[in-house]
Amino acid sequence: EAGVVQSPRYKIIEKKQPVAFWCNPISGHNTLYWYRQNLGQGPELLIRYENEEAVDDSQLPKDRFSAERLKGVDSTLKIQPAELGDSAVYLCASSLTWRRAKNIQYFGAGTRLSVL
Amino acid sequence: SQQGEEDPQALSIQEGENATMNCSYKTSINNLQWYRQNSGRGLVHLILIRSNEREKHSGRLRVTLDTSKKSSSLLITASRAADTASYFCATDRLGNEKLTFGTGTRLTIIP
Fold first, then answer.
1. Most buried one in A47, A58, A59, A100, CB count within 10 A?
2. What kind and span of H or E run contains B99?
């Protein structure tokens, strides 16, 4: 079974440029998460989807960040415009419905973003 | 803000020794999980312990949970070089699927 797939693995951009990350969750997982992980820290949730509905986006900086999950499968996370402080690793995770899966999450390898 | 704080921040031990790392949290929890993250990779789930459990084992892993002290420990026995990674605890609350991760312990196993 394929795991969570993210692309690209690395991205280097100049500040004020737009950037997008893509995630393909494990087949059958209806819950999808985007996290940001700063160097030396644990992941922090940005947004959580149940199928195509964003059910928790309270930590998403909505002035510059946006996300979508069309058809409840793949998801994209976009930053426009990027700022220096956005440099981090962006992780995608997926899980089965919480009550079935005890909230065990499966993570992709992440996209390391460097904003210059 | 980080719910969990791992201790120590970094730990280096000889291969074959046991490694113990601790996690403290601030609010009531439903479940506590431990994840491992190898350098440049995503997190991998290791073990989950419910709030009504006190100890759980999985292979070389032993997790304890003390809800009165709001703390958990992860013991890795007979460590191997492949155990070199960062270890994170993560908690969720009853009725809320959001996982809150700690700051992690960086474990280095010296061959």
1. A47
2. strand B96-101
Is the minimum CB–CB distance between A25 and chain B shorter than 8 Å?
no
B103 reaches A (C-beta below 8 A)? yes
Amino acid present at A39? L
3-state secondary structure of B8: coil
Tens of pLDDT, residues B8-30: 999 999 999 999 999 999 989 99
Phi, psi of B102 (to 5 degrees): -85, -175
Classified as helix, coil or strand, B39 is coil
For residue range A57-97, list pLDDT tens digits in order: 999 999 999 999 988 899 999 999 999 999 999 999 999 87
pLDDT one-digit tens code per residue, B54-96? 999 999 999 999 999 999 999 999 999 999 999 999 998 877 7
Positive or negative, the Cα torsion across B56, B58, B63, B65?
Answer: negative
Tell me which amino acid residue A2 is.
Answer: A
Report residue B33 CA to chain centroid gap: 7
Partner B contacted by A43 (CB < 8 A): yes
Identify whether A81 is preceded by a cis peptide bond (ω within 30 of 0): yes
Q: How far is B36 from chain A (nearest CA, A)?
A: 11
Pick the residue from chain B with its C-alpha nearest to A58: B98
